[in-house]
Design goal:
eight-stranded mixed beta sheet; 11 helices; 23% strand
Length: 404
């Protein structure tokens, strides 16, 4: 048993508290403490980040990323828990594929859950089910009529394939890519999934206030990404901004940013989907996707410094809500939760540089943006990152949903 002292984010504000940890979990939070050795944590202490939407490429495309480098990147950005998507080269649609993927993960610096692609097979260990309404890697497309549904989160990639087919055109730049997958495809997909009356639906990477509010009005949980909040199709980064769903025009992006405190927004996730620089060089041949696990928390905390998002909303979208939606004991500094902490000076920003980040892909669409990075990161009470350096062996564990 050990104890920590500092300004912890508890019940909506920073409080001078002592936090007692036993076997990696918070045992109690106290105003005073005696008879124990206490470790003082400087700065402002938040729960560890929970990113419920990453693509770490294990197995099959580890030249782009693997769990070791992806989780290393996440931890440097203050994220201690990740949930990895199932659209691998071999889609995670059955138990053999799931077990093979889990066995391929040699090391992780962050705790992790794994999704399955929704199918006629139900995998209890999966953290949730992913629904693809538009074709993904290897032509993966969800059969809504014949899938077996579980009582857990169902994350929807909301772009309807029929709409994408109607709008197909030559992709030469970010504007034409946006036109080839317009907002209507997103809205039609949200409308379709509502007709199936599924429980625990979470709509991923929404791209406009209109689609955000529409999804929320139907009772769905909602997600935005930093790239849809901060980038647009005129930003001038070419194929390095090519992503599905696409970056929208500047007015749509700016309206999203102006509404980031909206009650309609539940989660800010990275949709970390890295490709190599070489793969991204030619626009029409470039795969869609961009890295973001390391910059997700720092970018949002920089928005807080600028007065654009409240600390309450930042913590809710980055830590609390994703943990709640995925039904894990993360995201809060309270008794019974995992002792995952990050501390930083909330006024200290750093200029983001792709060649200084830790993803294997070696680039970022947020070059020269400002971010607030953590000084210290604790995973289940163990210090794993200090002043930008890893100080512990990778100790991330698989979060088996069957045991939660």
């Amino acid at each position: 048993m050990e104890a920590f002292h500092g300004f912890f984010y508890i019940n909506g504000e920073f409080r001078d508290k002592y936090v007692v940890v036993e076997n990696g979990k918070i045992k109690e939070v106290r105003d005073e403490l005696s008879g124990m050795n206490v470790k003082n944590i400087p700065g402002y202490i938040l729960p560890g980040g929970v990113d419920m939407h990453v693509h770490f490429r294990d197995p099959g495309e580890t030249h782009k990323e693997d769990f070791g480098t992806g989780s290393l990147s996440a931890v440097h950005g203050g994220t201690t828990t990740v949930c990895d998507m199932p659209n691998n080269r071999t889609p995670i649609t059955d138990r053999d594929a799931f077990n093979s993927k889990l066995a391929s993960i040699r090391r992780s610096y962050a705790d992790f859950g794994l999704y399955q692609a929704a199918s006629e097979v139900s995998i209890p260990e999966a953290i949730g089910q992913k629904i693809f309404l538009g074709k993904s890697t290897g032509g993966l497309l969800t059969d809504l009529e014949n899938s077996e549904w579980q009582n857990k989160v169902k994350v929807v990639h909301a772009e309807l394939q029929e709409c994408i087919d109607r709008n197909k055109r030559e992709n030469e730049n970010l504007v034409s890519h946006d036109m080839s997958r317009p907002l209507e495809c997103e809205l039609e997909a949200i409308e379709l999934i509502f007709k199936y009356k599924l429980s625990d639906v979470h709509v991923a990477h929404l791209t406009s206030v209109r689609s955000l509010e529409f999804a929320k009005s139907l009772g769905f949980k909602t997600e935005l990404t930093p790239h849809h909040l901060l980038l647009n199709n005129s930003i001038g980064i070419g194929s390095f901004g090519k992503v599905n769903p696409p970056l929208r025009k500047k007015s749509v992006q700016e309206e999203m940013l102006a509404n980031v405190n909206s009650q309609a927004l539940d989660v800010i996730a990275s949709d970390h989907a890295p490709h190599t620089i070489q793969e991204k060089e030619v626009f029409k041949d470039s795969p869609s996707g961009l890295p973001g696990a390391e910059t997700r928390v720092p970018l949002v905390l920089a928005l807080h410094k600028k007065g654009l998002i409240s600390v309450q909303k930042a913590v809710s979208t980055l830590m609390q809500k994703p943990a709640e939606i995925c039904k894990m004991n993360k995201g809060y500094i309270a008794a019974g939760y995992d002792a995952d902490f990050i501390s930083m000076d909330l006024k200290n920003t750093t200029e983001i540089r792709g060649d200084e980040l830790h993803s294997k892909c070696g680039w970022t669409p947020f070059e020269k943006f400002e971010g607030v990075f953590p000084d210290l990161v604790y995973l289940r009470g163990e210090l794993i990152l200090q002043e930008g350096e890893i100080v512990a062996s990778p100790s991330g564990v698989f979060l088996n949903a069957k045991e939660q």
